[in-house]
């Protein structure tokens, strides 16, 4: 039993806290527009996201939204436009953690930057959008949340106003984003046209009735709509062929923003994909209506995405760009969670959720290392990173953890989630996908270990000055590294939470 | 004696502690680690003796101490789940062996004070650490209650043997001998490991004793008459038994895996005494005795054991005849004596085999330590042709050595006579019904002659006649740390035979067969692990010549006659002031024996002529086909990566076009599959 009885809307507390933090930063900015008091700004953002994180963890532990006898069941708000259940809270945790890491790291990275308050408030707004995506339960709220997450992101990528690369990346991101949003909205309209509903549960009911009656006339229309929705998710998760923005946006953006986009934004993209496809389009009924199993689309996307991402990453010279492609590859791995839904096992979707959580730490950590390197000003290519291990052993050791975890080397967290994805894929009978996962993981080890080799085994290019140890960046990197490692012992509860959440969605 | 078994783990732990102390602090200790070793083995000896007393008062100990892995695999006989454990089994056999091992280890530690410390060797902490680790592993092997644990410690003693043979690693020969010992025994252990896995997979348990043991399970399987892995149950028991036997042949230096033992004499003589005579080499034979119930189920395996044993006994004895190095003679003698034990066990003479194991441990440790004493006397000379005349100058060494020699040669009433005679008697009565065993018996009997010969050739060349070198004229004195162990073992070599005077019992009816009663569980034993229980399993029939008494007389008379004639010929040839080398008169036979029947040569040929080309071919396949494929994959990947990278042109209109194209392709694929365009 809960000690305190809270009103139902309080279930949205993590989102509200994030939004409140953003507004507080705006207020601060209005009062003191030229302030570069980084401590207050970064601190506010970090504290806000940490409080949101704490509340989300507390809710999860307390069983808010959990199904079963002791829980209260999923909490539906505003006639089911938003829903707070285990999966929503799980992804809010991912978003809040990454936001906190990025805020702390930005304290050093954005040193000497003019638009401090704007930067942090945009980050918080985007985080609000992503957290709302986790709870959105209707195509309308999904679209709004998605745009709320996207629009600040465009601005954040382009926030280095004096940097050509940043501006160019922001524009490209915006253009591709506009195209993808158009496709997505068109998809929504087609689904609405075919079913007459926007709320996800209502769509599912309509489809099941239609499949049972056999009077559903818009099968092709619905199929096209679903495919266009997939396009929208693919954009958000940087999956092929909607991935073209990613390498350039990540490369041009400030490194903490690249971390933010590649971890939190990707996770948020996955949560709406998970929710829409498990809630709105029940597999049997939908297949009967559109004549094809929609998991087929995800099978294709998963294989193509992981292959393109990893193969393109293999020969990159620029570290950030390598990480960008690697992030595309990881989107491919997470797509297995949707591709394997056909077998009706919650294991594979739970595995994808675990992977996204571990990924939130290891990938954010890796990008933050790049942020650290940019802060030092050592350069951008693998050669420029040569011999950093001698100067900054702690950060470089953390980098080794991130790289090996991304590659999936035991006993690090990345190994376990990938292992669960692999067994899940096998269980779901997707042998081709499982094989692609293995081949791509093997290939990924090549380029991840190139970076490890560069920092530890290569000789530094020339006499290098001693490198600073910015507190915020170091703290964030070390924390991410520790989490990447200890998530393994902690995997018991994480596995349970993810599997429960996945089971609740599928049931 | 309630509760005394609680201290059982300490028997093995004491030497382990000594190992750690010698390794960590040996350099700073007054005797470089000898004191902890002596204290630890002394403690082990004391506790082992307590165990012996406890067992004699009718108690046994069988306890699983730690389960380190468990699985839910179902065995071929339908046992669900398997657990891998560490446990202790102390029954009459184990208690006896514990005392033997800890006693010899204790004496060897004491002897080392005179042999290693007094001689100013370097690297002593390493030496004592090795001895400690070995004693720990050997004792743990002895009271292991399951086959896997036995295997693990079997391997550990092998490792210690490797480390100690190579103690003088700066010489050229010692490391090479160590490697040879390791590789040859490893070859046998490879089969042993497969055997362990096979037994585990078949019966779902590796316990030696109790209703849950694999021995009992095998018996049930044979009685049920089913098939296991496509074989008749008995055939499968034979196959697995032979696989385990591979390890036994390697460790106990039986033909054809005996070649490592003579080389192992490169180690310090104390190590030879402890490891390569009295204990580790006995591990193989002990293992056969430990799981004798399993072998008793398979007459084929037993016959093979008996035949290999008889053959090895003769084969090694003939090689011992022509050796000039005192330790080499003893090495071949050891191989030969273990052949006797295998012969004894193979004909179902469980008591006789264990009896000889015990006696041999004492008299062979004595002989090796005696040889060590001679080596000290001779300023580290081992060639017997440079000795002579030591009899008067070192009486303690001489008389104890003589006692050991009499025991080894099988001269009544010394200990070796009683056990060897019992083995030959057991083989004889079975041989009357089974021609194969008769052949094994005949070889064992012939070996008695050679044993008598080479033993006394060694004694006469070493101690009698005139000194043949300066060192022999003026020997280096030896201290009490050397003499005391010799005396203890010398006494044992004389009297240990009294433990089982089987011929006396058969002739006069006097019940002087303590060891038989001991192993038959008259004082206490675990059910199924007694001589009587094994006897019921055996399929052998025995015959007699006339009456039992007459048969005993014939068997004992024959072996005594041969032993005396062997010793007599040696006396005639070598007990003269100036003995001469007779080797050349043997002609081509001598050459063959001198070359050890070309055993090393053919094994080297197997390695270089067969294995090496095969390995080269495999390597070539690996280098070209496998590596080629791998390199090809990586080249193709990098090439593909390079192409794929170029899609990213940096022009946003291209991206939009590609994005839409990709989307349309996906649409076409799904639409075609879903039939949307119809």
Automatic annotation (TrEMBL), chain A:
Query: Could you mention a single GO BP entry for this protein?
Result: ATP synthesis coupled electron transport
**At the top level of its lineage, which domain of life is listed?**
Archaea
Q: Which UniProt keywords apply?
A: Membrane, Transmembrane, Transmembrane helix
Q: Name one GO molecular function term.
A: NADH dehydrogenase (ubiquinone) activity
Question: Which membrane topology describes this protein?
Answer: Multi-pass membrane protein
Kindly give the NCBIfam families that the UniProt entry links to this protein.
NDH_I_N
Q: Is Transmembrane found in the keyword set?
A: yes
Name of the featured protein: NADH-quinone oxidoreductase subunit N
- A cellular-component GO term for this protein: membrane
Coiled-coil blocks:
none
Q: Does the keyword Transmembrane apply?
A: yes
Automatic annotation (TrEMBL), chain B:
Which residues constitute the signal peptide according to the record?
none
Q: Please list the residue ranges annotated as the NADH:quinone oxidoreductase/Mrp antiporter transmembrane domain.
A: 144-432
**What membrane topology is annotated for this entry?**
Multi-pass membrane protein
Q: Name one GO biological process term.
A: ATP synthesis coupled electron transport
Native species: Natrialba swarupiae
Q: Which UniProt keywords apply?
A: Membrane, Transmembrane, Transmembrane helix
* Cellular localisation: Membrane
Which Pfam families does the UniProt record give? Proton_antipo_M, Proton_antipo_N
Name recorded for this polypeptide: NADH-quinone oxidoreductase subunit L
Which InterPro entries does the UniProt record give? NADHpl_OxRdtase_5_subgr, ND/Mrp_TM, NU5C-like, Proton_antipo_N
Q: Which GO terms describe its cellular component?
A: membrane
Give every NADH-Ubiquinone oxidoreductase (complex I) chain 5 N-terminal domain span: 80-128
Q: Name one GO molecular function term.
A: NADH dehydrogenase (ubiquinone) activity
Q: Where are the transmembrane segments?
A: 6-25, 37-56, 93-115, 127-144, 150-169, 190-209, 229-250, 271-289, 301-322, 329-355, 361-378, 398-418, 438-463, 484-505, 550-574, 655-677
**Organism's domain of life?**
Archaea
Does Transmembrane helix count among this protein's keywords?
yes
